[in-house]
Amino acid sequence: MDTPVTDPLLRELAAAHGVGTSYWGWDGVERAVASGTLRHVLTALGIRSGGNEQIRQSLAEKELAPWRRFLPAIVVAREGRAASFDVHVPHGSRVGVWIVSEDGTRHEARQLENWEAPADVDGVLTGRATFTTPDGMDLGWHTILADAGSGPAECPLVVTPQRLNTTGALAGRRSWGLAAQLYSVRSTRSWGIGDFADLADLAATAAAEGADFVQVNPLHAAEPRPPVEDSPYLPATRRFFNPLYIRVEDIPEFAYLDAQALAASKSLASRLHAANREAGLLDRNTSYEAKLTVLEQVFLVRRGPARSRQFSDFCQDHGQGLDDFALWCALSETLDRSAPEWADDAATPDTGYCATQRAALADRIEFYCWLQWICDQQLESAQDVARRAGMGIGVVHDLAVGVKLDGADAWTLSGVLAHGVTVGAPPDMFNQQGQNWTQPPWHPGRLAESDYAAYRDMLRTVLRHAGGIRVDHVLGLFRLWWIPAGAGPGEGTYVYYDHEALIGILALEAQRAGAVVIGEDLGVFEPWVRDYLADRGIFGTSILWFEHDDAGPLAPERYRQQCLTSVNTHDLPPTAGYLAGEHVTLRESLGLLLRPVAEERAADSAEQEAVLTLVRERGLLPGTGPETHRAGVQETIEALYAFTALTPSSLLGVALVDAVGETRTQNQPGTSTQYPNWRIPLAGPDGVVLIEELPDDARFRSLLGTVRHALRPDAAGVSNDR
Q: Cis peptide leading into 444, omega within 30 of 0?
């Protein structure tokens, strides 16, 4: 009978598998992770830890695992550097190793001296031979092959950029852009929700004011039919886009609807146009239901030869991943998420049941593939409009941290996801109870075993028509906070990932797409992480209210150069609301505070005043202290943005909500149904603001003019090419 688990032995096993046994909280206190949490997380990783004997066996398995492999699962290298890797063969066997690059060129791998003694692996004396890749391998996805006499085996070799070259292209210049929640930004032609055509118009409007980019929320797909998830950060998939954003009238085949269908679609659109003027909560379901009604008719319109070929090429390019996603969409039309088939007959895309359904649902599968093609075309158009309007970067997409537990990716990619745990964040200053994002994490081992294919394909789709990508919680590529099922957010622990692989592949795919990468690196992080990201050419994120050290708010000169700096973020109220303490009022009303509201307000007031004092000292606001003349809200907002222009940061973000005087919070972290997150339309003190009205909006013109002026070389003292 096994003996009870010895805690040090359990912690040794956890550490061996990249599971944190303690962590440093936001308050600087180190906390030990509970043994129960460690066992639960190890189980999610597929590691047995039921007792001392099991733990010892698991430790032995961990040590033997690489010896059981002929070749590694994958080798990730950096350009200009040779990468070594091990090959395992029966002791005394000869092995040949070579590399075939993407273009078919063969390269010989060089063997290094390795005096490591052979090991007994499952009764076979096994030797370890070490090889190295040639110097000067081109960037890309190559193949290592090895043959010890029984036929070649292979594994991928990924050569990644030492440093993302798109970052270097921004050196010596400063750029600014608008940050917006696309669904909230509407025009007179929107169907109640901002769409891809609105994105193009917003980009053109911002470019006319001198902006170099427009940064939007994640545009990932939600459920295939209403009701749909409101949060863009809780999608069904991160690889494919949300047809909710399609501008129906911009599809070429729309014009060929018969007279009756055309009249019906125009009637639907007309009713939804009225919603664009409403400042109340957004209604995705009504908008999407109406669009789907028309989209299904447009889909039936016969396409010409050129369009048919384009659609066929798109489907071929996206391959099995697109087909599986479309199958999930089609199945979801008839199978409720609680239907038993999902756990049995339709547990994975490759069951016999699903093979039968692929044939039976062929038309619906084609429809959902077609929707993705339309999304792709309209996103391509938006980026083209942005660049033609003069933007140096264009559209910056957002990559969410994860996906829904019962969504498409959780189904199609279940083999590389961990089960029985969800992702979140430990308690911090602004979310004192911690957060559970209810998303399944990547399984680090299985993701590597799969050659990171799902991760790579996701990046390729998001970057396909992007000038940049913002990676939400980029720290998750280093470690993620895993929370056992049924536990509270504070009862989790960090699980570590191969950041060299994940960051390297991100840099490779971004470089091939010609896109910049902005990592949202806020929150608790290990000190070396930001330096590592900077060395790889990944931009960081600085939010004015969060930039401080033990002495107080940072002087602008101390901000990072390789950074996107802004006054606020979508997880805070717009600046007008923040200055009024709306974030404290909201959290207090929702029961999210862990100290008396009076203390919270006093602390918030003191933190704001410390920043405003620094702004006054730079001559951007009148007076020198709280007892002097108080500036108006608009004047203060513009001064705060002028302050960010004093930083050396290459990229400055201007929140569109600040440019129109919005006060309402878009999202309150730590809530789901308690607050209408992600349903607030763009509005100012005088009501809804539409895209067509932005050029004549006094607040919009004034704030953007302030930023333009502050970035002039003679005003900011920093080179600016625009």
A: no
